[in-house]
Design a protein that fits this description.
The structure is a single chain. With 335 residues, this protein is mainly α. Helix content is 71%, strand content 1%. It has a two-stranded antiparallel sheet with strand order 1-2. Helix 2 crosses helix 4 and helix 5 packs antiparallel against helix 6. The N and C termini lie far apart (53 Å).
């Protein structure tokens, strides 16, 4: 068994001054570990959407009526606060689990050899979004679940999911300059798809802000718009996203694109179909809580799938040296 080196006073000082550098000097994670860490952060960012939806759908948004404490006299939920207090406080505690997952992703990215600065920055970007969104979540409670702050809270979580998705993808790639796999027209079509997906998410927050699930049993302010009208606009945007996805799949098949973009587009189309079925069923069954929760999960999965389509339009080899040079390409052509 290899002997563990003693920790000297100089080591302790170095660990306090720069703990990430200290860990990086003594630990080299495998690429698989880095990918798993990035995936864990992404999974937790989706899970926080699901638990946040559970808080709203159970009417537990003010289960802890203040912030950062649960009550003026207690940091945690008490037995007297019942089910709603436990749900709201549990969601708050899950934020620490999310922080741990993001922290692991940062440490793994920093310790990887060679050091990939861009990957570490994506981890830190997640950290700061989590911190700012935690403060925003506290503001949501302090203002009594104002629907505009609730919408901003969800949008920030969507931004977190986007960064986590990019980090997960980058952890599976090299650091060479990106090389496009499709033409400019296809790339423009995908950017239209991304823009439509962003609008779909934004309008979805308005549907939530105007709809019946206010997040608490007390009188909570709602957005002053007609809920059914906004729901129909949301449905139209969903059909636009579906249509763009189908058009993209057709174009990719026509130009005989690589399998990566084609498979990602197929996956997005299937997720959209499932999400559409859930959306229509919940609309015509008076929004049962379980289906609304599944629809929120589906929203996160659709957003991830859209981003994966975008990221599949290019590739990044492990190193520029791995790319064939002009002479190599000419030799292959002559062969």
């Amino acid at each position: 068994m290899e002997r563990v080196p003693n920790l000297t006073r100089a080591d302790a000082v170095a660990a306090v001054r720069n703990p990430l550098a200290f860990i990086a000097e003594r630990w080299t994670p495998t690429p698989r570990t880095v990918r798993r860490a990035a995936l864990a952060a992404l999974v937790m960012s989706v899970l926080i959407v699901v638990t946040g939806g559970a808080v709203r759908l159970t009417g537990s948004g003010l289960g802890c009526p203040t912030w950062p404490k649960c009550t003026d006299d207690s940091l945690t939920a008490t037995g007297a606060m019942g089910f709603h207090g436990a749900i709201e406080f549990g969601n708050r505690m899950l934020t620490y689990v999310l922080c741990a997952a993001v922290g692991w992703a940062i440490i793994a990215a920093r310790a990887e050899k060679p050091h990939r600065r861009g990957l570490t920055r994506l981890g830190w970007a997640q950290f700061w979004v989590v911190m700012s969104n935690a403060v925003l979540g506290g503001i949501v409670v302090l203002v009594g679940l104002n629907p505009y702050t609730v919408a901003a809270h969800f949008v920030a979580t969507s931004a977190l999911i986007a960064i986590a998705t990019v980090m997960w993808q980058r952890a599976r790639e090299g650091d060479a300059p990106p090389r496009p796999l499709v033409g400019g027209a296809v790339q423009q079509l995908v950017w239209f798809l991304v823009a439509a997906a962003v609008l779909l998410i934004l309008v979805g927050t308005v549907v939530t802000g105007a709809g019946p699930h206010a997040g608490d049993s007390s009188e909570v302010e709602r957005m002053p718009v007609n809920w059914e009208t906004v729901s129909k606009v949301h449905a139209v945007l969903a059909w636009i996203v579906v249509s763009l996805t189908f058009a993209l799949w057709f174009v990719l098949k026509a130009v005989d694109s690589p399998k990566g973009p084609l498979h990602r587009t197929r996956d997005l189309f299937l997720i959209l179909l499932a999400q559409g079925v859930i959306g229509y069923v919940q609309y015509f069954t008076d929004l049962p809580e379980l289906l609304v929760g599944l629809h929120m999960l589906g929203s996160a999965l659709v957003w991830i799938a859209v981003l994966r389509v975008l990221l599949a339009l290019r590739e990044r080899p492990d190193a520029e040296a791995d790319l064939p040079g002009p002479s190599t390409e000419a030799a292959l052509t002559r062969a």
